[in-house]
Every structure is written in C-alpha cells, then in structure tokens.
Write a structure and sequence with these properties.
5-stranded mixed sheet; 7 strands; elongated; two-stranded antiparallel sheet; Heat Shock Protein 90; single chain; alpha+beta
C-alpha cells in the first residue's frame, strides 16, 4: 500500500474535510473573529485532519505489508490467517474475521469431498476384487479347454486383468505408503512371478523372455514392484515386433544402487515423445495406431517408483529398441519412507 493509492482511496474524506474547513473559515469571518485566531483555528484543524490520515495510513500500511510478505512466503496460502497478528483498526479485524470464516468453510467443504472420495475409492477397490474373481474363473476354464479361439480369449482376459490392476493401483497410489512394506526382496523371485503371469501371451506371440544376473536383493515392496514390472512388460508385449521379438531383463549392482533394465527390440518410441511417456494419459503415436493404449501404465509406474524411493527412466530408438531402467538406491529409501510417514 503506497501513499499515492492511499490518497486516491481517501479522496472523498479529504474532499469533505476541505469543504468543512472552508465552512468553518466562512463562519469565523462572519462572526468577525480576529485574524490571528482564525489562522490558529485553521492550523489546528488542518494539523488534526492530517494527523488522523497519517496515523491511519501508518497502521494500515504495517498490517497490509505484513500480510503481503507472509502471503508471498507461504506455499499453502490458506494458512495466512494463522500467521497474522490481530490488527489495531476495525477494517483489519473485519478482514481477519472474514478470512477465518472463509477458511473454515473451505476446510469443511474439502473434508466433505475427501469423505465422498474415500467412500468412492473403497467402493472401486471392492468392485475390482469382485470383478477379478470371474476373470480368474474364466481364465481357468479356458485353460481347461484349449483351442485356437480360446487363445484369443486368454489374450483379451489378460488385457482385462491388466486394466483392472491399473485401476486398483491408481486408486491406491495416493496413499501407497499405507499399503507397502519396504524390505529386502530378491529380484529373481519377483521376475519369476512376472514370467509366470505372462507366459501364455508370451508363448502366443512367440516372444523370447531372457533373464540374466537378477539374483540380487533390493530394498522395496515385492507386491508393488511386481505391479510396476508387469506394466513395463505389458508395454513391451503390446508394442513388440511380429518376428524375432524378445524381452531381456538384466540387473547390475553398483556401489550405491542396483539397476534393473527391461529391454525389448520392439517398435520403439519417437525421440520427441520420450520426455512425455510418464505423463498422465499420454499415449503418443504408438498408442493411437490400433494399440488402444490408456496412457496410464507408465504414469502409475512413475508415481509408485517415487513413493518407493526408486528412480525410473526410459531410453528408446524408433523401430529398434526400448529400455526402461529402474534404480534401487541403497540408502535414500530411508528418507523417502520417513517423509511418507510424517
């Protein structure tokens, strides 16, 4: 709040004060008050008006300056009410009370939405578990009655099961820390589960599944890691070439981390699209060429890796290869787990 703007805001008050001054001056002249007394009364009046305006300006300037500085320093602007001292003028007190009521109303509304959202998430989780039961039953029935058509049915059921998994883990991803347990996990065991889960589709499409040097332990949650790897493998299968296709998984231990690389010789990703592959609902050129991609798989992978304290990156060359690398840090996971629980 500067002086110029303050004077503009008070122009009506100043105008009335000037009018009253001239009225007083006319009254003094009408009653033939001597010159010295008229000057004295005029000076007292003017000094009084100016003093009132200056004092009001100084009080308000201090309050609004403090308000602006604290507001600029806050990331969560709605906490400003808790940071301000009570002002010494009426308008400031009215403002603070109004902000408090607005903040209270906003918190109540947010809590209502949170409750409704939580109820919906719980319903979705329950619904997914219920739907997965008939999907599993259908898969088992088809396995017991093998045939050419049944292979196609198995592929569609596998896709359906993968989409259900995506929904489930996406719903849980916002509060993932409540569901995971970080401990030592052997990569070979997790990858074996992935291979078993995808064996039918790998055999159907004739994709070689090559695994080497994965008998290493990392600090992670096995259930979440299995989902992460399954999403990456699913993409490798979806965008594989029709002939001589393979997926290769290899791990390498460094001083401060373990790197796990999932490499495929599929159709690859355009160079200009690679920085966006982890964005929500981004499908790219490949996802719009009959593959019917949702653009959610790698987005959820990125979110969960960050929750677990892992780093994920992707490198690809169109029509040549795609390599997704996950780095399991040996020390930093403690800090991540601490942040998630505070």
């Amino acid at each position: 709040m500067n002086k110029k703007n303050y004077i503009k805001d008070k122009w009506l008050t100043i105008s009335i004060a000037i009018v009253i001054y001239f009225i007083i001056l006319l009254i003094l002249l009408a009653f033939k008050v001597n010159y010295q007394a008229t000057i004295a009364i005029s000076l007292v009046y003017l000094i009084g008006i100016i003093s009132i305006l200056v004092m009001a300006y100084m009080r308000k300037k201090k309050f609004y300056q403090e308000l602006k500085e604290k507001l600029d320093s806050l990331d969560k602007k709605y906490l400003i009410v808790e940071m301000l001292n009570e002002p010494s003028f009426l308008e400031g007190k009215v403002l603070i009370d109004s902000l408090y009521d607005i903040n209270k109303s906003m918190i109540e509304r947010i809590n209502t939405y949170k409750s409704q959202t939580q109820d919906f998430k719980e319903y979705v989780e329950l619904w997914i578990h219920e739907v997965k039961l008939p999907v599993s039953s259908l898969t088992l029935m088809i396995h017991n009655h093998k045939g050419e058509e049944n292979k196609k049915l198995l592929e569609q059921l596998s896709r359906l099961d993968n989409y259900l998994e995506q929904i489930l883990y996406y719903v849980r991803s916002e509060n993932a820390e409540k569901d995971y347990l970080i401990k030592k996990v052997n990569l070979s065991k997790v990858i074996s589960n992935i291979a078993l889960k995808n064996k039918d589709i790998l055999l159907e499409k004739g994709i070689d599944f090559i695994v080497s040097d994965v008998n290493l332990e990392v600090l992670t949650d096995s259930k979440w890691l299995e989902f992460i790897l399954n999403q990456i493998i699913d993409n490798s299968i979806k965008y594989s070439k029709k002939q001589n296709a393979y997926i290769k998984i290899v791990a390498k231990e460094e001083k401060d981390r373990v790197d796990l690389a999932i490499y495929d010789n599929g159709i690859g990703i355009k160079k200009e699209e690679q920085p966006r592959v982890f964005e929500k609902t981004y499908t790219g050129t490949n996802g719009r060429t009959g593959k019917k991609s949702t653009g959610m798989g790698l987005y959820i992978v990125k979110q969960l890796c960050e929750k677990l304290g892992h780093k994920v990156s992707i490198k690809s060359q169109e029509q040549e290869f795609t390599c997704v690398r996950i780095s399991f840090l040996k020390n930093d996971y403690y800090e991540v787990a601490k942040k998630e629980t505070t």
